[in-house]
Amino acid sequence: MAKSKDRQLADLKRVRKACSLDQAEAALAVWGFQAGRSKGSVRVWNYKHVTITMHAPHGRGGKNLNPGAVAMVIKKIEEAALLQKQEEEEEETDED
Prior knowledge:
The chain has helices spanning 5-14, 21-30, 67-95, and strands at 34-39, 42-47, 50-55. The protein is of the alpha+beta class. The longest helix has 29 residues, at 67-95. Strand 1 (34-39) and strand 2 (42-47) form a beta hairpin. It contains three helices and three strands, in the order ααβββα. A three-stranded antiparallel beta sheet has the order 1-2-3, covered by helices on one side.
């Protein structure tokens, strides 16, 4: 069973310093981001005009992402959330 969008975002914020690439990519997918082009350890994710480039962790402690990278994922998800909210409001206005 997939986690809700809000739950995924809350989990990312909670594990900011110990977040795996899989966790971050799962959150992006739940929020509607599509995996785009990839090359080596780099993958681009897109939601409309919101784009994030994810680098696979490497080096010491290569399982978890850098906390700054996790913060960027959170920021991009929040940008997508704002867009989604605007789209929902526009649909409600169009229905009236």
